[in-house]
Amino acid sequence: MKRSILYKILFVSFFVLRSVISGQDAETKFKLAQNYESAGNFEKAENLLIELIEQQPWNYSYFNALYNIYIKQKKYDEAVDIISARLKYSPNDPSLYGLMGSVFFMKEMSDSAYFYWDKGIETNPASISTYRIIANYAIESRALDRALEYLKMGRELSSDKSIFTLDLANIYSLTLRYKEATLEYCYLLSLKPDQIGLIKTKFNSYSGNKKALDEIIATLESYYKDNPQPIYLDLISYCNMLNGNYDSALKYTIEYEKIINSNGAAIYSMSQNALRSKAYDAALTGYKYIIDNFPGSNIVPIAKLSYVEALRSRLTETHKNDIWPYSENTDTAEYKRLSEEYKKIAGEYAGSNIYIQALYSRAEIEFEYLRNYRLADSIFTIINLRAPGTEYSAKAFVKRGLIAVFSGNLEQAKTFFDNILLNNKSAADLKAEAYYRKAKIDFWQNNFESALSNLKTASGDLSTAFANDAIELSALISALKRDSLNLAIYAKSDLFAFQKKYEEAVALLKDLINRDNLFILKDFALYRLAEIHIYTKRYGEAIDYLNELTGKSESGILSDKALLLTAQIYQYGLKDESRAGDLYKNFLEKYPDSLYLETAIQNLNYIQTKKGKDG
Question: Residue 492 and residue 161: Cα distance in Å, rounded?
C-alpha cells in the first residue's frame, strides 16, 4: 500500500517537473525569437514562434509577436490565418476583429476591413469600451471617417454624453475640419463647463494657424448666438488673442465681464496679455475701461499703474531699441509726463505696494531718460527706507551706486553695491551686477587683484547679463596687470567715459594708442574710442577705429565685438539696414562660436523680417 502511494507521488512529480522544464524551454525560445527579430532575422524568429504557438495556442504573447513579424514582412495572408485560428479560442474578443480589420485595410480591402470591425462591435454592442477599441484600430489604420462613426455610435449608447467628445474633436482636427472640432468642444463645454481650461489648451495648439483660428472664431461666434452663455465669450476672446486680434479679444472680454461681474479681473488679465504681446492700444483701452467703469474695484490701483507702464513701454518701443545702448532720449516732454503720472499714483496710494512700484518707476525715468540724478537718488533712498529687503530696494541700491559713480563718490558707490550682496533675498542677476560694479570700481582705483576676485564671482553664472563683460575685463586685467602704469591710464579713461567726460577720456585713449608695444591694450583703447564717438554721433570716425580692429586676425581679442558694433552703427546710427545685414552675415560666417552670436542673429532676423514686411 505504501509503495503504491509512493509511485503515485513520483508519477505526479514527474509530470510537474516536465511541465516546469517545458515552460523554461518555451521562455528560452521566446527570448531567442525576440533576439532574432531585433537582428532582422525574421524567418528564424517566425519558425520559433510557430513552434511555441503549437505548444501553447492560448498564449497571447506568442500570438502577438508572430502577428507583428508577419506585418513587418507584409505577410498579410499569414496574419489573417493566425487571427482566424485565435478567434476559435476567443470568438468574442473585439480586439481580434480589430486586428483582422486592420490587416485587410493594409491589404487595401476596405470593405473587408469594415466587415470585421463591424463584427467586433457585434461581440458586445452594449459595452462602450467595445466602440473605443474598434475606433482605435480604425484610427491607427487612418480610417478616420469610420472611426468617427464608431465613436458617435458609442456616445449615443452612453448615459455620459460627454464621452468620446475629445476623441471626435481630435479626429476632426486631424482632417482639418475645424468647424466640426469646435462644435464638439462647445458641446463638451455645455455639459462640463469646468473643462474650459482643457479646451483652451486644445485651441492653443492652433496658435499661429490663422486659417484654423479664423474658422474656429467664426464657429464660436455662430454657436454663441444660439447658446448665449458667457463661457463662450471667454473662449471667443481667448481664440482672438491667439490669432493676434487683441482689439476683438478685448471687446469680447468686456462683454464677458459685464455678465460675470468680476470687478474687471478678466479685462485686466486680457490687457496684461496684450501688453506682453506689445499690443499697446488694446492694453491701454482695457486698463482705461477698468479705471472708468469699476471705480470701487480693488484692481483699479494696479490698473492705473499698468496704464502708465503701457504708455512707457509704447514710448520706449517707439524711440529706443533695447539692443542698442547708445541711443539718447529724444522725447523728454513725454518722459516728464510719465514721471508726473507715476508721482500722482504714488501720492494716491501711499503706503501700499503700488506706492513702491510707482516710486521706483518714476525714479527710473528720472535716472535713465531725464538724467535728474539728484531727484532720482532721493526717490531711490525713500524706497530703501520704506521697502528694505525687497527686490525694488535692491534695484534702487544699484541705481544709487551708479549715481554715486557719476558724482565721483566711488567709496559710497561700493557701499550701495555691498548692501545688495548682504541681502540674501537679492536676485542672482542683481548680485552678479553688484559684483561686476564693485570690480569696475576696483579697476578704476587700480586695485587689480580685488577686481579679478569680484569679476570671477560676477562671471560664475554665464546666463547673467554681466557675465560677458566680466569675462572680458578679467581677461584684460590678467593679461596686462604687470604693465600697471598703462593699465591705470586705461582704467582712468574708462571711468571718464562712464561719467560721460568724453574729452578727458579721448585724450587719455589717444595717448595710449600712440604708444609702442601695447598690443592688447591698444585694441581696447580703439574700441572704447569708437564707443565714445558713437555717443557723440561721429559715426564715421567710430567705424574707422573699429576697422582697425576688424582688419586684424580673426583671432584678435576684440575682432568679433568690433564687427558686431560696426554692423550696429549701420543699423541704428546710419539707418543703412542693407549694409548692416551684410555685416551681420559676415559676422555669423567668421565667428560662429562668438559670445555675441545671439545678438547678431537677433538683429539680422529683425532686419530680414522688416524687409519682408516692407517688401
Answer: 78
CA distances from 350 to 291, 355, 356, 358 (A): 18, 5, 8, 10
Instruction: Give mean pLDDT, residues 59-84.
Output: 91
Position 538 scores a pLDDT of 94
Residue 563's closest CA among 603, 612, 535? Answer: 603
Query: Residues 264-288: pLDDT tens digits?
Result: 999 999 999 999 999 999 999 999 9
Residue whose C-alpha is closest to residue 352's, from 317, 300, 310, 396: 300
Cell numbers for 174, please give them. 486631424
SS (H, E, C) 495-519: HHHHCCCHHHHHHHHHHHHCCCCCC
- What average pLDDT does the segment 293-319 reach? 93
Q: Domain 1-73 maps to which CATH number in 1.10.10, 1.25.40, 2.10.260, 3.30.70? A: 1.25.40
Quote the CA–CA distance of 279 and 248 in Å, as a whole number: 12
- Which top CATH class is 484-614? mainly alpha
List the Cα angle 502/507/509 in 5-degree steps.
90
Handedness of CA 84, 86, 92, 96 (dihedral sign): negative
The whole-angstrom separation of Cα 166 and Cα 531 is 59
Domain ranges for the chain, please list them. 1-73, 484-614
**328 SS3 class:** coil
Question: What does the alpha-carbon distance between residue 240 and residue 277 come to, in Å, rounded to a whole number?
Answer: 13
Asked whether residue 342 carries a pLDDT value surpassing 60, the answer given is yes
Residues 6+ apart with CB under 8 A from 91: 123
Q: Are 97 and 134 in contact (CB under 8 A)?
A: yes
Tell me the C-alpha to C-alpha distance, in Å, between residue 57 and each of 43, 65, 96.
20, 13, 15
Say which residue the cell 502577438 belongs to: 64
Q: Grid coordinates representing 207?
A: 496658435
| Residue 614 near residue 606 (C-beta atoms within 8 A) | no
Residues in contact with 393: Cβ distance below 8 Å, sequence separation at least 6, in sequence order: 383, 384, 387, 423
Angstrom distances, CA of residue 414 to CA of 214, 324, 494, 512: 57, 27, 17, 28
Question: Which stretch of 44-58, 139-153, 437-451 has the lowest confidence by average pLDDT?
Answer: 44-58
Cα→Cα distances 233→254, 387, 476, Å: 9, 41, 60
pLDDT bucket at 516, cuts 50 / 70 / 90: confident
